[in-house]
Amino acid sequence: MHIGIIGAGYVGLVTGACFAEFGIFVTCVDKDEKKVKALKKGKVPFYEPGLDELVQRNIKQRRLKFTTNIADAVNDSLVIFIAVGTPPRGDGSAELKHIDEVANEIAKHMDGYKVIVTKSTVPVGTGKRIKRMISSRLKAKGSLSALSFDVVSNPEFLREGAAIEDFMRPNRVVVGADSQQAVAIMKDLYKPLYLIETPFVITSVESAELIKYASNAFLATKVSFINEIANLCDEVGADVNIVAKGMGLDQRIGSKFLHAGPGFGGSCFPKDTRALLRLAEKHSIELSVIRAAVSANERQRHIMFEKITRVMGELKGKTLAILGLSFKPNTDDLRDAPSVFLIERLRRAKARVRTYDPVAMENARSLFPDIVFCKDPYDAAKDSDALVIVTEWNQFRNLDLEKIKGMLRQPFFFDLRNIYDPEKVKKMGFKYFCVGRT
Ligand code: NAD
After folding, report:
1. Which of 5, 267, 333 to mutate to test the pocket of ligand 1 (most atoms within 8 A of CB)?
2. Angle, nearest 10°, between helix axes 51-60 and 10-21?
3. CB-based contact 229:243 (threshold 8 Å)
4. Catalytic: 268?
5. Tens digits of per-residue pLDDT, 27-78?
6. What's the predicted TM-score (pTM) here?
7. Domains of the chain
8. Across the beta sheet with 79-82, what order do the strands follow?
């Protein structure tokens, strides 16, 4: 089978490379010429463990190719995935202009039956909108009766940093379609996963679209929930790690996404929760739980900054060593990262920032040209007044704390990811602060 993927970002590229690995012929299209030029040489423009090798191997084996010309992908393919960005608009709703652009282009180049699949996260109703747009385009060029097509929703649940594993071994594959033919083609495409008994949820386009938003909103709510419990723990002398463990062992609750910290970030949770709120508003439905999860998350960022100022006092002229910039480990993605909020607040307070991140520093340079990028965590700690762990990269879990202490001007240590043992660290002479374990 031959498929086309429009949009070669995180989702499109991972999807394309993984399907190619399954033996499918894949044409990836992106309008960004620089990106396509690099990809043709096997250069992945962002950090994702294992993706370079996968892309390079499949280019070599001629199953994966890149182009800026959408016609190439449409002509050759039975299935066309749309994986372009759906960033937030000013009011929080999802921007669909890239989706519309692509739908129009597909209609322009269609030459036979196609299954058009949205992998992008799109509001409920977008599948129908794409169908309407393509139909009216085909009608205008007089080929509606000759060309048939189906629109399918196949939302993506991969996590940045573990994207290949998530694609190859997903918890489930969701396919929303109104046609048996389209479902059969999707099942055939995903055959390797079907064979390893991955659960498939076959449903309507609308339900599939909503499954994605509801899943992200639920996970975001779990994060905000444990963060609020952590703030209470700080006041009543409980330990949020133990509370979360005690809760998470209940199988009805589960242990995932119960890690207290500086709040959720990234390209999905903040954007998708807001877009879902806007969608509900449009339908006069109040999603008060999700609304609360979003505002608790915004508050959590402020609480982290206040934690620092409460113990350090005036920050003007002080230097803070920030460890970790990406919104989570194993990615260089800074979109909506807690570190970005914290650094902005520190700069407004006229504090100086020294920072280290294993892979995200290149992306951060353009955002923060006036902070100091260091060669390792020890270099960041040098002559700083405090160490702040913002992202829990594995390499920060076992730092030589004696060495760090020797480098800091003052022994303030803010562990916003709860990765160190408070007793041990305090015994070493640090003034140690974490989240919900005071
Ligand atoms: P991205 O910004 O990394 O990639 C989008 C790509 O689409 C860009 O390379 C852009 O140049 C390209 N593009 C835009 N308009 C185009 C057009 N008309 N023709 C060709 N290419 C075009 O975005 P992403 O993170 O891959 O997200 C894509 C979608 O998947 C979003 O809806 C997002 O919410 C969803 N999603 C993302 C993740 C994630 O972890 N990043 C996970 C699940 C779902």
Report:
1. 267
2. 50
3. yes
4. yes
5. 999 999 999 999 999 999 999 999 999 999 999 999 999 999 999 999 989 9
6. 0.96
7. 2-203 (3.40.50.720), 241-433 (3.40.50.720)
8. 64-67, 25-29, 2-6, 79-82, 114-118, 149-153, 173-176, 200-203
